[in-house]
TrEMBL record:
Residues 120-233, 244-391, 510-642 form the Plastocyanin-like domain. GO terms for molecular function: copper ion binding; oxidoreductase activity. Keywords: Copper, Ion transport, Iron, Iron transport, Membrane, Metal-binding, Oxidoreductase, Transmembrane, Transmembrane helix, Transport. InterPro entries: Cu-oxidase-like_N (IPR011707), Cu-oxidase_2nd (IPR001117), Cu-oxidase_C (IPR011706), Cu-oxidase_fam (IPR045087), Cu_oxidase_CS (IPR033138), Cu_oxidase_Cu_BS (IPR002355), Cupredoxin (IPR008972). GO terms for biological process: iron ion transport. The chain crosses the membrane at residues 43-64. SUPFAM superfamilies: Cupredoxins. This is CYFA0S04e05842g1_1. Belongs to the multicopper oxidase family. Pfam families: Cu-oxidase, Cu-oxidase_2, Cu-oxidase_3.
Length: 680
């Protein structure tokens, strides 16, 4: 067992020597910690004495080892006992895709799923947390289908909060109401209510996707899972590249519910101070090496945690569908002694590119090929790493274990692998030695080129400039901004509901609702761009005026990445795009321009993306860092409203908005009455 690590109260000489390599805010935090160590040593001595007395008292009461369940963090707000239920999903079984047995030629059919959403107590890394999950297990179940199939999901919400489910990256062609973006194109699913989503998967959409809650910070609490869309077209192009495939979920992890961080995060004079994760997970599991002064009984919890074990056959080719389901951090994905060959990004099949390290931002997905070596009994275990990029964090979290690990175990054909290999392993593997990035940036987009012919239109109809930034130093709430506007829900219902149900432009300004706009002029509360021309080609210039990187995601579409750069974008650069069109012959039929649904834009840089507005609905465009989305870094594209006003909306969808309107109308009245009457 790992030796306990104790809280350090001052900087070591080595720490002082590397201060220059971190951000100014991090340096301030380090030096503050040092100052506190010098000025409060007597206070800490007293605290240590009192904690010792308290610990001895509790030991007498509990015994040397408590039989009432794992202890609770001394910093925890709630004293809870872990559930005895089998909450951990068997991802070795559930996420292993038997591609030899999958019927790629099957006629289009309905793939049906039944999900019950509940709140449970679970400990993905050994630390007990209140989580929101599907069917009592974490992470969520795999959804599989063929392109052209219909997915039908029955959702029963037995949790304490409202919820929603968004299938990230799916088009929902002419079914915008199933996109699941709460307050934008769907109303919340209340507790003790049921809701069914039934949508057709586009015949030209395949690859790796995922689903997650789109209700406040709920995705940080466990409501996530993978989606794989198979295609005969793709498998014929890639069939000789891999023998087996599996889904790999990676991401950051917090020890408290996301909602517990929001008040402090949005507080004035707290700009860009996003809550820093406590750990990282691979397949929903990891080990948290807890110092004794973090938890009262670290030993017990340590025994309850584990690392995931991947069982690979020697001399085989594996397709790993890697998904960053984290709420905040981008990360570096590696496997010791193995290269990674990228063949897919965000559902777009690409020309193979081999890398040693895969940088993946929140919400992005990559398929990589891993070739296993000849079996060697002396060297049959290797570390898989998902290293959170701590340089993306505003401040230091002393408890953070940034290097999430899993085990890649070579097994022979006749081996029956049993037991827990995750506790303490001597893998004898060699970690790839590289200088970790001191910036937040994704894989170089210029490395990726689509395998199939799908070039963008050569000309655009409209250019939308989005300046993204946060309030700095003006003692306001920590709100994200697009063009000086910050998103707030259009209560008491949703954007789609309001616009679809109103027949005149004048009705779009409701006294109880946040005003929406029909132009590109920024207003105080929201930024909504209406597109009324079917098939209009829209260029979106994303200008990141913030010092941090942002993974921007567009619902309902994939966009072509036309160009990225630093400094100010000048329209003369469009001539360079024309040159790229002329260079596509060198890339066979696939074309030069990468197509995806989520792009990382580094601090003080820009990206120009292009999409064809042919999918009616109200579609969010937002930063996929959960904290930033909650802070309002979101705008909306209102595409072809005259078309979606003619739709017949599902009865259950309308009922959700009726329930939500009653809820918030009552809240408005209560607030108004309290304001009018004043204090008692």
């Amino acid at each position: 067992m790992t030796e306990p690590q104790y809280m350090r109260l001052s900087l070591s000489d080595d720490e002082e020597s590397v201060i220059s390599s971190v951000s100014s805010r991090q340096r301030r935090e380090l030096r503050k910690e040092k100052l506190r160590g010098h000025t409060k040593s007597q206070a800490y001595g007293l605290i240590a004495f009192l904690v010792t007395i308290a610990f001895l008292s509790m030991t007498i009461l509990w015994g040397i080892r408590s039989t009432a369940g794992p202890p609770v963090s001394i910093f925890s707000k709630d004293r809870v006992v872990t559930s005895a239920a089998n909450w951990r999903l068997d991802t070795n079984k559930e996420y292993s895709i038997k591609n030899q047995k999958w019927n790629y030629d099957a006629s289009p059919q309905v793939r049906e799923y039944h999900w019950t959403i509940t709140d449970i107590l679970a400990a993905p890394d050994g630390v007990v947390k209140n989580m929101t999950v599907i069917n009592g297990q974490f992470p969520g179940p795999l959804v599989q289908c063929n392109a052209g199939d219909t997915i039908k999901v029955h959702i029963k919400n037995e949790g304490a909060e409202p919820t929603s489910i968004h299938f990230h990256g799916l088009f929902f062609k002419n079914q915008n109401y199933y996109d699941g973006a709460t307050y934008i194109n769907q109303c919340e699913i209340p507790p003790q209510h049921e809701y069914t989503m039934e949508f057709k998967v586009d015949e030209e959409q395949w690859g790796t996707y995922w689903y997650h809650s789109h209700y406040t910070t709920q995705a940080a609490d466990g409501l996530v899972g993978p989606v794989v869309i198979h295609s005969k077209k793709e498998i014929e192009a890639l069939k000789d590249m891999y023998d087996e495939e599996m889904v790999v979920l990676v991401g950051d992890h917090y020890h408290a519910r996301g909602s517990e961080y929001m008040e402090e995060y949005l507080a004035p004079d707290n700009e860009n101070a996003e809550p820093v994760p406590d750990n990282g997970l691979i397949q929903g599991a990891n080990v948290f090496d807890m110092p004794d002064d973090y938890y009262l009984n670290a030993t017990f919890l340590q025994e309850e945690s584990l690392r995931h074990v991947f069982k690979f056959r020697p001399e085989r080719k594996y397709r790993l569908r890697v998904i960053n389901v984290g709420f905040f951090a981008d990360l570096d994905f590696t496997i010791d002694n193995h290269n990674l060959t990228i063949i897919e990004a965000d559902g777009t099949t690409v020309h193979p590119v081999t890398v040693d390290v895969l940088n993946i931002a929140s919400a992005q997905r990559y398929s990589v090929i891993v070739n296993t070596n000849v079996f060697d009994v002396k060297r049959n275990m290797f570390w898989m790493h998902a290293k959170l990029n701590e340089y993306c964090f505003d401040h230091l979290n002393e408890w953070l274990r940034y290097d999430a690990k899993a085990v890649v175990l070579y097994v022979s054909e006749w081996d029956e692998v049993e037991g827990d290999y995750s506790a303490k392993l001597d893998t004898k593997s060699e970690e790839y030695q590289y200088v970790r990035d001191v910036f937040c940036r994704e894989l170089d987009e210029t490395l990726l080129h689509p395998l199939f012919h799908d070039p963008p239109p050569k000309d655009y109809d409209e250019n939308v400039r989005l300046d993204a930034w946060f309030h700095i130093g003006d003692w306001k709430l920590d709100r994200g901004q697009f063009n000086d506007t910050t998103y707030r829900p259009w209560l008491p219902s949703s954007s789609l509901y309001h616009i679809a149900k109103n027949t005149s432009e004048t009705e779009k300004h409701d006294g109880n609702a946040t005003p929406m706009i029909q132009s590109h002029v920024p207003y105080d509360d929201n930024f909504l761009v209406s597109v009324n021309k079917p098939g209009a080609v829209i260029d979106v210039l994303i200008n990141n005026l913030d010092d941090g990187s942002h993974p921007f995601h567009l619902h309902g579409y994939k966009f072509w990445v036309m160009m990225v750069g630093s400094g100010n974008f000048r329209f003369e650069k469009y001539s360079q795009i024309a040159e790229k069109f002329n260079a596509t012959d060198d890339l066979e039929e696939g074309g030069y321009f990468m197509k995806r649904d989520t792009i990382m834009v580094p601090g003080y840089k820009w990206a120009l993306v292009r999409f064809v507005a042919d999918n009616p609905g109200v579609w969010p465009f937002h930063c996929h860092i959960g904290w930033h989305m909650e802070a309002g870094l979101l705008m909306q594209f209102d595409v072809l409203p005259e078309e979606y006003k003619k739709w017949d909306y599902p009865e259950q969808w309308t009922e959700l908005c009726d329930i939500q309107e009653k809820k918030y109308t009552q809240v408005f009245h209560e607030v108004t009455d309290a304001t009018t009457k004043g204090p008692n």
